[in-house]
TrEMBL record, chain A:
An example Gene Ontology biological process: glutathione metabolic process
GO cellular component assignments: cytosol
Top-level taxon: Bacteria
Protein name as it appears in the record: N-methylhydantoinase B
Stretch forming the signal peptide: none
Domain Hydantoinase B/oxoprolinase: residue ranges: 20-539
Pfam families: Hydantoinase_B
MF term (GO), any: 5-oxoprolinase (ATP-hydrolyzing) activity
TrEMBL record, chain B:
Positions of the Hydantoinase/oxoprolinase N-terminal domain: 5-180
SUPFAM superfamilies: Actin-like ATPase domain
GO biological process: glutathione metabolic process
CC per GO annotation: cytosol
Lineage: Bacteria, Bacillati, Actinomycetota, Actinomycetes, Streptosporangiales
InterPro entries given in the database record: ATPase_NBD, Hydant_A_N, Hydantoinase_A, Oxoprolinase-like
Boundaries of every Hydantoinase A/oxoprolinase domain copy: 201-490
Protein name as annotated: N-methylhydantoinase A
Pfam families in UniProt: Hydant_A_N, Hydantoinase_A
Length: 569, 670
């Protein structure tokens, strides 16, 4: 049994000691602004709605030592995961010595990106005069790059999940490598969309590279490096300051993942968080060996889960850099659910990773009760659709995450219908945009009455979404947390779990959670009922006026009030 | 030429600018803003600066108001009822599922403007192509009217699915609502916006219904008070998208005015760039407006205002044209502090007007950007407008505590740091707008205005690698100058997703005819724009078209050019129209000249000790009154005038351009 400890060493101790704090602040802001420019460039030019609407991408800068300089706020789920893929991408093409200005490296190996092959990264080396000083990197979700299906929930090895580019030059010194380009297109079911997104990613990474290059030129390389070292020390001090205030101790929680997607067996796991002074260790060794279905979580995404949990609790609202993560150590077991080895399938890596985030936060409830809410719907409820248009035969595809109710907190009700925290910057596609684009008619888009977990503070409501299928098509469902109801805290009751039902034209109905390629005939109606938030505190302590207001606005029915809040009636 | 008054209500001051056509005279006045009844501050400014006979000669009174914005900020507006398609009552509350702060576990959206019990559903359905899937059920509308009557609803918003493609059901629902006895204002989404995206359109329509209640009475009351004082001209209200609306239109479409606050300064810059661009060498002008609480910037290309078609105010999206002015919390009042990790930070929190910077000695003790600039001699020692005596000692006392936690050696170095960080914030905001539009600001000019803009002009030029800084006349009141230059503008739009092919342009022509008919503006100059995109993309570029002259090839070529400029590449994919936009513009006074400089003045003369950022050292420098500036003066120096101070660092030289602008040019490279 191999135990792996992942932590971040200080690359150049003492380098930042003499750095001017004013220039450090100016460079820190400059890096964050440059990352934001890269993000805006990608959003504005991307072809796939998964990028421009759902913001399913990450953009970041890394220094020559692969430490994160800055990351623009997009999907927290990708927090800090790009470091692994920058390293692997550069190694793939022969190491830093093999790089020249104008290179663009393509990399999408799940064991380096942490996710599925659809999440492809572009890495651009940034040179100052003749010195390699940094990398700009973009990872974004392509609609399709091969694999047994456009979106898979039932793979048994990683090779079924998509074509893998293990670090190859897409541009060599500014020249497009057409062999690689043609291979990408030959391996996608939607080559036109993918071409558009490739162009957008290359343009974005180059925009970022230029902005960062200008920052280095402006301040000089030596000053830049010293100030960056000081910036990391600053980020580290902020996070250490937060953990120092926590009582030292060992905090543990356990839970169960619905299914591995292939055998249907539930997967129990536990988290153990050790707070010691200003450092924190998260131990995820209490889990099964890697499983046969695609819910294994490659190490980079396990790291991301831990970082997100910490960012939510201790981040002080700052855009993070490498320094913020230095106080963190992660313990995993090689060959396990949270540290699988090739060729374990991992397409649905987000399921264990998302579950771990909420469980780590729950574990810390004992240490910081004022900072921890009850459970949310707990999943992104990913759905992917595709087919060929009836009139033209043209292929189409779309995919989206869906919002869930949020857990109630110690001082307020949970918010209704927000994206799960790992995708918290993601937006829900407007029904009118969907109808203009896809052969559907949305019949209902509503908050689910009575769905919030009862409590002194009520859980947020889940979403009820129904859409009628106007042309034959396929659906892949990637729902988790369909069996485990969102937990309440401090005596609050559970909310409702996620649920997907397909109602066929013949009146038959069937529920799905993880299922690939569900045929939807014309006339079928899909009902997605997303999870709600758990309640906080005993329902008997709910303010009667709050109960009456919920009744008046129809967030709860009289029956629900009579059952859970008789004291208010 | 006509006599025009512009009055802009800001957060702190209400500014008035009057241009007297008979004498060419300019008058300015400043009065404290009176937030509870803004018309009082407006009328006080009029009473202070405009004698009755002059008011009687005024043709136009152009007003920039925050009444609509404040109604939203304070949530004081009409009780609104919403009628929507069955199945969709929660659209307003579900929003788009995102969070303003992605890292806040407890983030909760602001409560919707219409509570759930007043969001009522009617059976009906229109498809995305405009075809009717299900007829409107009249009984549902009648029932809604009963509920609204029982609940005391003041105004109703009607938003039905896909009404942008076929508005018949919305119109019919309004008719039924009237028949059922509802007498209050009704806002229809296809009239308010005409664009797709149901959450954004619902929000815009509800905001319209919500603020109309406040805006109409306010404007009519102001109009009445002006007429009592002898005003016989026309009251106009500035739009978020530039230009102004006639009173009746502004009262009927108040959501178009909500984001108008920072627009006037950008509009004045655009006007300046359009008339002087060639002679000042600025194809690209960066508006740099530094006020008390914020830095507002806009990128002006070829004298045109940068327009966007969706704005956001207090977390509510608005489908309405608005000028792309970016605001960051880096103004004179922005507070400097040492963060938990020991770095020096500036803003976004501001000491505001009250208590204001420490050097104002009105109870503020926190160090601000103004305190740092005063300490460094970038603002003349002595008095500033408003009669507040600035205290150097108070500034130094406020800055001193920052030395400890940051480890910065001495108050001088802290002050330099605060100003550099503030300038870096401003430069990043500028880079944000220029990079997004694919424009390199080098080769253009920074137009510096607002109370503190000219203090930062040279620092910004260095940060941005720009060689030219232009300080317009009346730099401190330049935003209000933008008001007296406004045209009357009305716009309408309709989403129409279809390929850009040979059949498209005749169709566009028919749609625009209908839109212009709705605008009903005789004599207006008509402008048509299309939101275009590559098929498969979502984001659009807005491209002007000349109907009757353009064909698919010429429109496509214009799109490709704009796309290349914005994104650095072009694509072969076919184009798609998303939205058709019609603009009617009545030019009030085509020859209105650049407003000349106001009477002379300015505090301080002789020499002063100031910090040169270029030299990294203290230096003795002359202080020159703006009207005394003769020929080319080499920096470092201060140029003073009643409403602003211009800091000219070493390596820059200042001269007065024939337009009255102060032209500052870099003499070496940074």
């Amino acid at each position: 049994m191999t135990i792996v400890r992942t932590r971040y060493a200080e690359a150049h101790p003492g380098l930042g000691d003499g750095a001017d704090p004013v220039t450090t602040e100016i460079i820190r802001q400059g890096l964050n602004a440059a990352a934001d420019q890269m993000k805006q460039s990608l959003i504005r030019t991307a072809f796939s709605p998964i990028i421009y609407e759902a913001l399913d991408f990450a953009v970041a800068f890394y220094d020559a030592d692969m430490c994160m300089l800055a990351q623009a706020p997009t999907l927290p789920a990708f927090m800090g995961t790009l470091g692994f893929c920058v390293r692997e991408a550069v190694e793939g093409v022969g190491g830093p010595a093999a790089l020249s200005p104008g290179d663009v490296i393509l990399y999408n190996d799940p064991y380096g990106t942490g996710s599925h092959p659809q999440d492809a990264a572009m890495v651009v080396p940034i040179f100052h005069e003749d010195t390699l000083v940094a990398y700009s990197a973009i990872k974004a979700h392509w609609l399709d790059i091969g694999g047994k299906d456009p979106y898979c929930t039932d793979t048994v090895d990683v090779h079924q999940e998509g074509t893998i580019f293990p670090g190859v030059k897409l541009y060599d010194a500014g020249r497009l490598v057409s062999d690689v380009y043609r291979m990408i297109l030959a391996n996608s079911r939607m080559p036109e969309m993918v071409i558009g997104d490739i162009n957008a990613m290359v343009a974005g990474a180059r925009t970022g590279a230029e902005a960062l290059g200008a920052l280095v030129r402006r301040h000089g390389l030596d000053t830049f490096r010293r100030c960056v070292a000081r910036m990391y020390a600053h980020g580290e001090a902020l996070v250490r300051g937060w953990f120092e205030r926590l009582p030292d101790g060992v905090y543990q929680e356990s839970s169960v993942i619905d299914s591995d997607g292939v055998n249907g067996t539930p997967i129990p796991f536990g988290v153990r968080v050790v707070v010691e002074g200003s450092s924190v260790t998260v131990d995820l060794t209490d889990c099964p060996d890697q499983v046969g279905g695609p819910v294994n979580c490659p190490l980079p995404s396990t790291v991301a889960a831990v970082r997100i949990a910490v960012a939510f609790l201790a981040g002080a609202g700052e855009q993070p850099n490498e320094g913020h993560f230095r106080p963190l150590e992660l313990v995993t077991r090689l060959g396990s659910l949270f540290h699988p080895v090739r060729p374990a399938p991992c397409f649905m890596y987000g399921i264990p990773s998302d579950h771990a985030i909420e469980l780590i936060i729950k574990a810390l409830a004992e240490a910081v009760p004022e900072s921890v809410p009850a459970a949310s719907g707990g999943d992104i409820n990913a759905l992917v659709w595709w087919g060929n248009r009836e009139a033209t035969g043209e292929p189409w595809a779309d995919g989206a995450p869906h919002p869930v109710g949020q857990g109630a907190g110690p001082s307020a009700d949970g918010a209704s219908a927000l994206m799960y925290i790992s995708e918290s910057a993601t937006r829900f596609t407007p029904a009118e945009v969907w109808e203009a684009r896809n052969p559907w008619r949305i019949e209902r888009l509503a908050l689910a009455e009575d769905s919030g977990g009862p409590g002194r503070h009520r859980g947020g409501l889940g979403l009820d979404l129904s859409f009628r299928i106007l042309e034959d098509q396929y659906l892949t469902a990637g729902l988790a947390r369909t069996a485990l109801a969102p937990w309440g805290l401090e005596g609050g009751l559970a909310g409702r779990p996620n649920r997907l039902t397909v109602e066929y034209p013949d009146g038959r109905a069937e529920d799905f959670s993880l299922k690939t390629r569900i045929f939807l005939p014309k006339g079928a109606v899909v009902h997605l009922r997303t999870g709600s938030g758990g309640g906080y505190g005993p329902p008997a302590e709910r303010d009667p006026e709050a109960v009456r207001a919920d009744l008046r606005e129809g967030y709860i029915t009289p029956e629900h009030a009579a059952r859970h809040y008789p004291h208010a009636l | 030429m006509t006599t025009v008054i512009g009055v802009d209500v800001g957060g702190t001051f209400t500014d008035l600018v009057l241009h007297d056509a008979a004498t060419g005279e300019i008058r300015v006045a400043k009065q404290p803003t009176t937030p509870s009844a803004p018309e009082r501050g407006v009328l006080a400014a009029v009473d202070a600066a405009v004698p009755p006979e002059l008011l009687a000669r005024c043709r136009h009174f152009v007003h920039g108001t925050t009444v609509g914005l404040n109604a939203l900020l304070e949530r004081r507006g009409a009780t609104v009822g919403l009628i929507t398609t069955a199945g969709f009552r929660d659209v307003l509350e579900i929003r788009r599922g995102d969070r303003d702060d992605p890292y806040d576990l407890f983030w909760t959206p602001p409560p919707p403007l219409v509570p759930r019990r007043l969001r009522l559903e009617v059976a009906e359905r229109v498809a995305a192509d405009g075809s009717v899937v299900r007829d409107l059920e009249p009984e549902d509308v009648r029932r809604a009217a009963e509920t609204f009557a029982a609940e005391g609803v003041d105004a109703v918003a009607i938003v039905l699915m896909n009404s942008y493609a076929n508005p018949a059901h919305e119109a019919r629902a309004a008719e039924l609502l009237r028949q059922a006895g509802f007498a209050g204002p009704v806002s229809l989404s296809h009239e308010v916006s005409g664009e797709y995206r149901e959450y954004e359109r619902t929000c815009t329509t509800v905001v319209d219904a919500f603020v109309r209640h406040r805006m109409g009475p306010y404007l009519h009351n102001l109009d009445h008070e002006l007429r009592v004082r002898g005003f016989a001209g026309e009251l106009l209200v500035t739009r978020s998208g530039g230009g102004a609306l006639a009173l009746a239109e502004a009262a009927a479409r108040p959501f178009e005015t909500i984001l108008s606050g920072p627009v006037a300064g950008a509009a004045a810059t655009a006007r300046l760039a359009a008339s002087l661009g060639p002679s000042l060498g600025m194809g690209t002008a960066v508006a740099a407006d530094v006020g008390g609480t914020s830095f507002d910037t806009a990128l002006i290309e070829d004298g045109r205002l940068p327009l966007l078609y969706q704005g956001e105010v207090v977390g509510l999206p608005l489908q309405s044209p608005w000028v792309d002015v970016r605001s960051v919390g880096a103004g004179g009042g922005s507070v400097a502090y040492a963060d938990a990790g020991g770095l020096l930070r500036v803003g976004p929190r501001s000491a505001g007007a009250d208590p204001g910077p420490a050097c104002y000695q009105r109870g503020g003790t926190e160090p601000t950007v103004t305190d740092a600039a005063l300490h460094l001699g970038m603002i003349p020692r002595g008095h500033i407008s408003g009669g507040i005596e600035l205290s150097e000692d108070a500034a130094a006392r406020a800055l001193a505590p920052l030395t400890g936690p940051t480890g910065i050696d001495g108050v001088d170095a802290v002050a330099v740091g605060v100003v550099r960080i503030a300038a870096a914030h401003m430069a990043q905001a500028v880079r944000g707008v220029t990079v997004e539009r694919g424009v390199d600001p080098r080769g253009g000019a920074v137009v510096a205005f607002g109370g503190a803009g000219p203090v930062f002009g040279c620092l910004l030029a260095d940060e941005l690698d720009v060689d030219t800084v232009v300080v317009p006349p009346n730099a401190g009141n330049f935003s209000a100058v933008g008001l007296v230059q406004a045209d009357i503008v009305r716009t309408a739009a309709r989403t129409m997703v279809r390929p850009l092919d040979d059949e498209a342009l005749p169709l566009v022509e028919r749609v625009t005819e209908a839109l212009f008919e709705r605008l009903a503006q005789p004599g207006a100059v008509r402008e048509v724009d299309l939101d275009l995109r590559h098929r498969g993309q979502e984001h659009t570029l807005t491209i002007p078209v000349r109907l009757g002259e353009d064909d698919v090839a010429s429109v496509s070529a214009r799109f490709s050019e704009a796309y290349h400029r914005a994104f650095g590449h072009t694509l072969p994919d076919p184009l798609e129209i998303v939205t058709v936009r019609a603009t009617g513009r009545v030019v009030l006074d085509a020859d209105r000249p650049m407003v000349p400089a106001p009477p002379s003045g300015g505090s301080g003369r002789g020499t002063t000790r100031l910090w040169s950022f270029r030299r990294g050292a203290w230096t003795e420098a002359p202080v020159i009154r703006r009207e005394d500036l003769d020929g080319v003066a080499e920096g470092p120096l201060l140029v003073v005038e009643p409403t602003a101070t211009t800091y000219v660092d070493a390596g820059f030289a200042a001269e007065t351009h024939e337009s009255g602008c102060l032209l500052i040019t870099r003499k070496d490279s940074a």
